[in-house]
């Protein structure tokens, strides 16, 4: 929890509690759990008691009081990421703690608040009743984390439906760590129906063109996509084709995209000539563009170098992607 954050896409983090339970492959190397292990506070996993953080209320109120100063300096609202060390929609958290978080977040209306969850199916069950009835605060956006195409097919359409139904001002997905290719423009939502998460438009499988199912009304498209590779000692590599496709799709649809980092592993095509001597001493792996165990042919195999997060940087296809949705600019 901090008034300043090292996370590239926010200015500050506020945590009303610490602790969580892993729910996805994206949680395998959770930095918050690592940090918790280091601190020895024992708040991780099923049945483990979460730890209430006393200073959260005073911090968010201070950020709200300082809003004029921040806006004068930066020309925009302060971006505040709630619960960087846990998940707002964790089933094992006392509802009274969550009620505190929602009340304080709703009151901090001079901030641009970011709720980020891996538990999108809990959102409508857990937010205050009046948020469901036209009262979703206009300064709070909602993001869902996903790591591969299967998770995107499960979560992206539901997020768009939530935006439409609850009047959420903006929505986004955080694809961190990216563990496989994701085509956000072609997510299968039923046997013959596909959903384009960037435009919100449905389409029918061409093989069903003679007997197409009804096509639902369009939903809102995503406002923001964050992509990033994994850091830490057990980090998994990110194939450049996966990130490039997301960036291209966002460009094509005018969706804000932020490429946060390569993580520990840098692809051969992104290596600068002057750093080649360093790379001779680093670990390498060969990563196919389709890492599925069912892939018949391994296409577009990329040599990945373990150079460390700081060296790998965040240039994708030779440029920085650091875009924010309108509500966060
Ligand atoms: S949901 Fe987030 S905080 Fe919880 S274990 Fe997974 S990565 Fe960590």
Concise description?
This protein has 329 residues and is of the alpha/beta class. The chain has nine helices and 17 strands.
Describe this structure in words.
- The protein has 329 residues and is an alpha/beta fold.
- It has a single domain, classed as Alpha-Beta Barrel (TIM Barrel).
- It contains 9 helices and 17 strands.
- A 7-stranded parallel β-sheet has the order 1-4-5-6-7-11-12, with helices on one face. A 3-stranded antiparallel β-sheet has the order 8-9-10. The chain has a 3-stranded antiparallel β-sheet with strand order 13-15-14.
- It starts with 11 loop residues before the first strand and ends in a 9-residue tail after the last strand.
- Iron/sulfur cluster binds next to α1.
Keywords:
329 residues; alpha/beta; TIM Barrel; seven-stranded parallel beta sheet; three-stranded antiparallel beta sheet; 9 helices; binds iron/sulfur cluster
